Amino acid sequence: MGITRREFLVRATAGGVAGVMMVPAWRAVGETDVGIRLSACDWSLDAGGPSGLEIARRVRLDGLEVSAGGPADTLKIADPEYRKQYKDAVAQTGVVVSSVAMGLLNDAPLATDPRGPVWLEQTIEAAEDLGAKVILLAFFGKGDLLKDRELKNADIDVVVTRLKEAAPKAGQAGIILGIENTLSADDNVRILDRIQHDAVRVYYDAGNSTDNGYDVPAEIRRLGDRICQFHFKDGRHYLGEGRVKMEPVAEAIRAIGYRGWIVLETSCPSKNRDADFQRNADYVRKLLATA
């Protein structure tokens, strides 16, 4: 049985208030909507491991989306000693773990790898320990739920079953399982309607959806509060200078009342990582600044 949104939000905020309320010294009061914070993928920042939090701090981010590790019976993120290194780094830098990404599912798909359910359990426990409230479940590469633009219905059936089983544990921990894929908003809604649990939502990537030909602002409005988190990227371009029309995206984000993390999965056009991430972060802060 699912839980109500109100019940879920109460559980999700309990125990995570310290992380949510941390505000970096570089952010002036009123500069940006206080409900939006900026993070980056550790793979985009080339900052894997606990030391990545210091790099995130240096480029003026609020958080870091960390990888769960590669396919193994026990994921790297499941090691308490490894997580302690992250928690120590959080205490030292003031930068938090915004989310945990299960990118391994691209090569070892949730629909077909028998270890998938155990990996979900391990990552839910790890995310709770790290204070992260969202787990990214990736469905690209071998794990793509589309083939030749047709739905892989057998894979989707398995994914729905496995997420139905994992959702109650995630919900009790105040964790959201965010599915990121190449599907349309309508197809994602159908998946969520089958799962019927608020602990499973959509992790929306504006860059991927643009590349796949979707109407991104319309999709954001269609999904509404079923979006748990956003990736921002635009190929080899700086944000605002490529194919993704960022102003309409920002308008749609404001329209649905989103409050949470914007996670940069951006590239480095100038090859200067720190400068390029700071530039994109500054752009997003201005884009989403309160009027």
Describe the structure concisely:
The protein is an alpha/beta fold. It has eleven helices and ten strands.
Question: What would your notes on this structure say?
Answer:
- The protein has helices at residues 5-13, 17-21, 52-58, 80-93, 116-130, 153-173, 185-195, 206-211, 216-223, 246-255, 273-287; strands spanning 36-40, 63-67, 96-102, 134-138, 146-147, 150-151, 176-180, 200-205, 227-232, 260-264.
- The protein is α/β, with parallel strands linked by helices.
- Strands 1-10-9-8-7-4-3-2 form an eight-stranded parallel sheet. The chain has a two-stranded antiparallel ribbon with strand order 5-6.
- The radius of gyration is 18 Å and the shape is globular.
- The protein starts with a helix and ends with a helix.
- Mean pLDDT is 90; it is low at 1-33.
How would you summarize the topology of this molecule?
Elements: H1 5-13, H2 17-21, E1 36-40, H3 52-58, E2 63-67, H4 80-93, E3 96-102, H5 116-130, E4 134-138, E5 146-147, E6 150-151, H6 153-173, E7 176-180, H7 185-195, E8 200-205, H8 206-211, H9 216-223, E9 227-232, H10 246-255, E10 260-264, H11 273-287
Parallel strand pairs: 1-10, 2-3, 3-4, 4-7, 7-8, 8-9, 9-10
Antiparallel strand pairs: 5-6
Helix pairs in contact: 5-6, 6-7, 7-9, 9-10
